[in-house]
Amino acid sequence: MQLPVLPTGDAAPLPVDLTGGSDLPHKHASPPNPRKQKRDRSRSKRRGKLTQAQRDALGLDERWDRFYAQKGVRFYKDRHWLRRELLELMPPAVRDDPMRWCAPLASDGTGVAVDVVPATNELARMTVGLEAGCGCGSAAFPLLRANDDVFVLATDFSAEAIRLLKSRDEYENQLSSSTRRIHAWVSDVAAPPGDARWAAVEALADALGGLHFLTFVFVLSALEAAQMVAAVRRAARLLRPGGLLFFRDYGAGDLAQRRLDDRGQTDGAGTYERGEGTLARYFSLEEVGDLFPPALFDRVELRHVERDITNRAQGVTMNRRWVQAKFARRGAPPCFEPVAGAPPLAETGAARRRGAPRSSSPVRGADDGGDDAHCGDLAPECGCFASLGFD
Ligand SMILES: C[S@@+](CC[C@H](N)C(=O)[O-])C[C@H]1O[C@@H](n2cnc3c(N)ncnc32)[C@H](O)[C@@H]1O
To answer: pLDDT at position 32, please?
Structure first.
């Protein structure tokens, strides 16, 4: 499938074939089993799956609203692995020891800030970034905890996700501190230029000379193909020359993709629809490289992250595969010094957080880069959420 061309004068066409998954092993469907079908129907109901007609009646943002209303703030666990993978944004102490304990944001009790887009002078000496499709803040808060100099503009088009994010203690704490470091609001990252919900942040980015960094963490896979291009265009618009774009998303060949393939939950052009109506896409390295054209971005890193996650109790091994990339906005040397790879961490099991207070940890379970637990339609079979020690 050919993606639309970026309508910026300096952008190269995106020859992106996002069909994906052609190299996947194909499993033949087994004959229908009425008892299994009945069991699956009742599981689907419990897990919030929608019929096709129900899905069609909802916009994508409403489907995500429904998803978050049902799953709550803790479905996506905090992405502490960013300390290891985004060393560019980390202070020296965290670079040296990415697994060190980073305390949650606390209030210093100095007063309550008004929760509006910050003024330019408020951010003058800070490293300012945008988390697009931030959900409930599972990437934003780990970044903020690890680096006191970071300010995160966090946006999602699910109003329910932003409501949950704002209900977190850490959000409230930073609003009652002398220096707030996060502002969250509802917007569509793929909205056309001139969209009113972006006006204030675009003006802020312009006043700052552009944002220092921008993250797409499991977000572009949730968009339709044309929206992906619009989101990338917005990223290019907001970043300063040399600014860092961080991408992590599902990789072609991920177990979840194979399951969705088996169930025929794809449009045949690389977009999958989970039972709850949210979209998914599984990227090859080439597709990600093509999505960020050289006219706009210099490639810094593009690779697979793979992990076999074993649930010993159930005897299930999940082959998870993600794609991770970093790009620098063209036009100047990168804002951040290149950094050597982080010390390797154990690939399985929960890596221990060094220095964490024993009893007051806000993070339960693995901090080893457990990545995105959104198995969606995987969950009914493997029960991975309940028993993998993710949460
Ligand atoms: C898989 S979740 C990831 C959430 C978060 N980045 C994280 O790492 O936990 C995908 C998110 O993208 C958001 N999203 C999907 N389409 C969007 C759009 N057009 N604009 C903004 N957010 C969007 C969804 O509401 C959802 O919160």
So the answer is: 64
